[in-house]
TrEMBL record:
It comes from Apilactobacillus micheneri. It is an enzyme of class 4 (lyase). One of its GO terms (molecular function) is acetolactate decarboxylase activity. It comes from the Bacteria. This is Alpha-acetolactate decarboxylase. Its EC number is 4.1.1.5. CDD domains: acetolactate_decarboxylase. It holds the Pfam family AAL_decarboxy. It catalyses: (2S)-2-acetolactate + H(+) = (R)-acetoin + CO2.
Length: 237
Protein backbone atom coordinates (compact mmCIF):
# COMPACT_ATOMS: atom_id res chain seq x y z
CA UNK A 1 0.00 0.00 0.00
CA UNK A 2 1.33 3.42 -0.99
CA UNK A 3 2.03 5.74 1.95
CA UNK A 4 0.92 9.24 1.03
CA UNK A 5 2.19 10.78 4.29
CA UNK A 6 5.80 9.75 3.62
CA UNK A 7 8.55 12.12 2.44
CA UNK A 8 11.54 10.24 1.02
CA UNK A 9 14.73 12.25 0.89
CA UNK A 10 17.91 11.01 -0.73
CA UNK A 11 21.06 12.65 0.55
CA UNK A 12 21.05 15.99 2.37
CA UNK A 13 21.19 19.54 1.14
CA UNK A 14 24.25 19.94 3.37
CA UNK A 15 26.29 17.54 1.22
CA UNK A 16 25.93 19.98 -1.69
CA UNK A 17 27.44 22.85 0.33
CA UNK A 18 31.11 21.76 0.01
CA UNK A 19 30.57 20.44 -3.53
CA UNK A 20 29.71 16.77 -3.06
CA UNK A 21 27.76 16.74 -6.30
CA UNK A 22 28.32 13.15 -7.44
CA UNK A 23 25.11 11.39 -8.47
CA UNK A 24 24.80 8.25 -6.35
CA UNK A 25 21.19 7.13 -6.90
CA UNK A 26 19.47 6.30 -10.19
CA UNK A 27 16.14 7.89 -10.96
CA UNK A 28 14.69 4.42 -11.50
CA UNK A 29 15.38 3.71 -7.82
CA UNK A 30 14.25 7.15 -6.65
CA UNK A 31 10.89 6.76 -8.36
CA UNK A 32 10.15 3.66 -6.30
CA UNK A 33 9.62 6.07 -3.41
CA UNK A 34 7.42 8.71 -5.05
CA UNK A 35 5.82 10.06 -8.21
CA UNK A 36 6.28 13.74 -7.37
CA UNK A 37 9.29 15.73 -6.25
CA UNK A 38 12.30 17.97 -6.82
CA UNK A 39 16.08 17.61 -6.77
CA UNK A 40 19.25 18.07 -8.79
CA UNK A 41 21.41 15.88 -11.01
CA UNK A 42 24.92 14.46 -11.04
CA UNK A 43 27.41 17.32 -10.99
CA UNK A 44 24.62 19.70 -9.95
CA UNK A 45 23.27 19.15 -13.45
CA UNK A 46 20.26 21.45 -13.52
CA UNK A 47 17.04 21.51 -11.49
CA UNK A 48 14.72 18.50 -11.35
CA UNK A 49 10.93 18.36 -11.28
CA UNK A 50 9.12 15.03 -11.01
CA UNK A 51 5.49 15.40 -12.00
CA UNK A 52 2.91 12.62 -12.37
CA UNK A 53 5.71 10.07 -12.26
CA UNK A 54 7.72 11.67 -15.08
CA UNK A 55 11.12 13.20 -14.25
CA UNK A 56 12.24 16.38 -16.00
CA UNK A 57 15.52 18.27 -15.89
CA UNK A 58 15.74 22.02 -16.45
CA UNK A 59 19.34 22.41 -17.59
CA UNK A 60 21.66 25.41 -17.45
CA UNK A 61 20.35 26.66 -20.79
CA UNK A 62 16.79 26.63 -19.47
CA UNK A 63 15.73 23.71 -21.65
CA UNK A 64 13.30 21.18 -20.16
CA UNK A 65 14.44 17.60 -20.81
CA UNK A 66 12.61 14.37 -20.06
CA UNK A 67 14.93 12.00 -18.21
CA UNK A 68 15.41 8.25 -18.25
CA UNK A 69 15.92 5.97 -15.28
CA UNK A 70 19.71 5.94 -15.55
CA UNK A 71 20.06 9.65 -14.69
CA UNK A 72 21.61 9.93 -11.23
CA UNK A 73 21.05 12.35 -8.36
CA UNK A 74 23.03 13.42 -5.28
CA UNK A 75 19.95 14.94 -3.63
CA UNK A 76 16.19 14.73 -4.13
CA UNK A 77 12.85 14.80 -2.30
CA UNK A 78 9.90 12.70 -3.49
CA UNK A 79 6.50 11.55 -2.28
CA UNK A 80 3.34 9.97 -3.68
CA UNK A 81 0.92 12.77 -4.53
CA UNK A 82 -2.37 13.06 -2.70
CA UNK A 83 -2.91 16.82 -2.62
CA UNK A 84 -5.93 18.48 -1.04
CA UNK A 85 -7.18 21.85 -2.23
CA UNK A 86 -6.48 24.78 0.08
CA UNK A 87 -7.82 27.78 -1.84
CA UNK A 88 -8.30 29.49 -5.20
CA UNK A 89 -6.19 32.55 -5.96
CA UNK A 90 -8.43 35.57 -6.47
CA UNK A 91 -5.98 38.47 -6.09
CA UNK A 92 -2.34 39.10 -6.87
CA UNK A 93 -0.20 36.34 -5.41
CA UNK A 94 3.60 36.35 -5.04
CA UNK A 95 5.89 33.82 -3.34
CA UNK A 96 5.92 35.82 -0.10
CA UNK A 97 2.14 36.19 -0.09
CA UNK A 98 1.72 32.49 -0.86
CA UNK A 99 3.90 31.45 2.07
CA UNK A 100 2.22 33.94 4.39
CA UNK A 101 -1.29 32.80 3.47
CA UNK A 102 -0.56 29.08 3.75
CA UNK A 103 1.21 29.42 7.09
CA UNK A 104 -1.59 31.68 8.32
CA UNK A 105 -4.19 29.05 7.45
CA UNK A 106 -2.48 26.01 8.90
CA UNK A 107 -0.36 25.27 11.97
CA UNK A 108 2.14 23.33 9.91
CA UNK A 109 5.39 25.07 10.91
CA UNK A 110 6.70 21.95 12.66
CA UNK A 111 5.93 19.32 10.04
CA UNK A 112 6.90 18.65 6.44
CA UNK A 113 4.39 19.30 3.70
CA UNK A 114 4.31 19.58 -0.05
CA UNK A 115 2.65 22.51 -1.77
CA UNK A 116 1.45 22.88 -5.34
CA UNK A 117 0.17 25.91 -7.23
CA UNK A 118 -1.17 25.47 -10.73
CA UNK A 119 -2.12 28.59 -12.65
CA UNK A 120 -1.19 31.11 -15.30
CA UNK A 121 1.61 33.41 -14.21
CA UNK A 122 1.76 37.01 -15.42
CA UNK A 123 5.46 36.94 -14.66
CA UNK A 124 7.71 34.17 -13.42
CA UNK A 125 11.46 33.96 -12.81
CA UNK A 126 13.47 30.76 -12.37
CA UNK A 127 17.10 29.71 -12.31
CA UNK A 128 19.33 26.76 -13.08
CA UNK A 129 23.03 25.96 -13.44
CA UNK A 130 25.23 24.10 -15.88
CA UNK A 131 26.61 20.70 -14.97
CA UNK A 132 29.81 21.09 -12.95
CA UNK A 133 33.02 19.18 -13.55
CA UNK A 134 35.53 17.88 -11.03
CA UNK A 135 37.12 19.30 -8.99
CA UNK A 136 33.67 20.54 -8.01
CA UNK A 137 33.22 24.11 -6.75
CA UNK A 138 31.12 24.88 -3.67
CA UNK A 139 27.37 25.37 -3.77
CA UNK A 140 27.76 29.12 -3.16
CA UNK A 141 30.23 29.44 -6.05
CA UNK A 142 27.69 27.75 -8.32
CA UNK A 143 24.91 30.02 -7.09
CA UNK A 144 26.93 33.04 -8.17
CA UNK A 145 27.03 31.62 -11.70
CA UNK A 146 23.35 30.69 -11.96
CA UNK A 147 21.37 31.41 -15.11
CA UNK A 148 18.02 33.15 -14.72
CA UNK A 149 15.00 32.73 -16.97
CA UNK A 150 11.94 34.97 -17.25
CA UNK A 151 8.48 34.15 -18.57
CA UNK A 152 5.23 36.04 -19.10
CA UNK A 153 1.73 34.59 -19.25
CA UNK A 154 3.06 31.08 -18.65
CA UNK A 155 0.73 28.32 -17.44
CA UNK A 156 2.36 25.76 -15.21
CA UNK A 157 2.98 24.32 -11.78
CA UNK A 158 4.94 25.64 -8.83
CA UNK A 159 5.71 22.66 -6.61
CA UNK A 160 7.97 21.81 -3.73
CA UNK A 161 8.28 21.36 -0.01
CA UNK A 162 8.19 23.08 3.32
CA UNK A 163 10.64 21.74 5.91
CA UNK A 164 10.69 22.75 9.60
CA UNK A 165 13.62 24.96 10.62
CA UNK A 166 14.77 22.12 12.84
CA UNK A 167 15.77 20.27 9.65
CA UNK A 168 17.63 23.14 7.96
CA UNK A 169 20.76 21.55 6.54
CA UNK A 170 19.19 18.20 5.96
CA UNK A 171 16.79 20.12 3.71
CA UNK A 172 15.99 23.79 3.13
CA UNK A 173 14.39 25.13 6.31
CA UNK A 174 11.20 26.77 5.03
CA UNK A 175 9.95 26.60 1.45
CA UNK A 176 11.93 25.06 -1.43
CA UNK A 177 10.01 25.42 -4.71
CA UNK A 178 10.56 24.56 -8.38
CA UNK A 179 8.50 25.39 -11.47
CA UNK A 180 7.63 23.63 -14.71
CA UNK A 181 5.47 24.99 -17.53
CA UNK A 182 2.65 22.84 -18.88
CA UNK A 183 4.10 23.12 -22.39
CA UNK A 184 7.64 22.42 -21.07
CA UNK A 185 8.80 25.80 -22.38
CA UNK A 186 10.57 26.73 -19.14
CA UNK A 187 11.16 25.75 -15.54
CA UNK A 188 13.74 25.64 -12.79
CA UNK A 189 14.29 26.66 -9.19
CA UNK A 190 11.66 29.29 -8.40
CA UNK A 191 12.88 32.82 -7.76
CA UNK A 192 9.76 34.95 -8.19
CA UNK A 193 6.27 35.03 -9.69
CA UNK A 194 3.07 37.02 -9.92
CA UNK A 195 -0.35 35.57 -10.67
CA UNK A 196 -4.01 36.48 -10.22
CA UNK A 197 -5.45 33.03 -10.80
CA UNK A 198 -4.74 29.45 -9.89
CA UNK A 199 -5.40 26.74 -7.36
CA UNK A 200 -3.24 26.02 -4.34
CA UNK A 201 -3.20 22.56 -2.81
CA UNK A 202 -1.06 20.88 -0.18
CA UNK A 203 -0.23 17.54 1.38
CA UNK A 204 1.03 16.99 4.92
CA UNK A 205 4.00 14.62 5.20
CA UNK A 206 4.50 13.57 8.80
CA UNK A 207 6.91 10.70 8.15
CA UNK A 208 10.48 11.36 6.95
CA UNK A 209 12.51 8.58 5.35
CA UNK A 210 16.08 9.64 4.67
CA UNK A 211 18.68 7.60 2.82
CA UNK A 212 22.34 8.58 2.91
CA UNK A 213 24.97 7.75 0.23
CA UNK A 214 27.02 5.51 2.51
CA UNK A 215 28.73 3.81 -0.44
CA UNK A 216 30.24 7.12 -1.55
CA UNK A 217 33.72 7.42 -0.04
CA UNK A 218 33.90 11.20 -0.43
CA UNK A 219 30.70 11.67 1.53
CA UNK A 220 31.68 9.25 4.27
CA UNK A 221 35.06 10.92 4.82
CA UNK A 222 33.97 14.57 4.60
CA UNK A 223 34.10 16.69 7.79
CA UNK A 224 30.93 18.81 7.68
CA UNK A 225 31.88 20.61 10.91
CA UNK A 226 34.16 22.81 8.79
CA UNK A 227 31.30 23.98 6.55
CA UNK A 228 29.01 26.95 7.15
CA UNK A 229 25.97 24.92 6.18
CA UNK A 230 23.24 27.33 7.29
CA UNK A 231 25.01 30.34 5.79
CA UNK A 232 25.67 28.60 2.48
CA UNK A 233 22.08 27.36 2.16
CA UNK A 234 20.75 30.82 2.93
CA UNK A 235 22.95 32.39 0.26
CA UNK A 236 22.44 29.72 -2.39
CA UNK A 237 18.71 29.13 -1.98
Amino acid sequence: MVKTNNLYQYGTLALLVPGLFKGTLKLSDLLKHGDTGIGTGDGLDGELVIKDGTPYQIDGHGSVNKLDGNFTVPFADVHFADYKKLFDIESTMTPDKLEEKVMGMKDWQNTFFSIKLHGTFDKIKTRSVYKQEKPYPTLVDCAHKQHEFNGENVTGTVMGYYSPQLFNGSAVGGFHLHFIADDLSMGGHLLDFSTNNGEVSAQVLDHLEQQLPVNDEEFMKHDFSKDDIAGAIGEAE
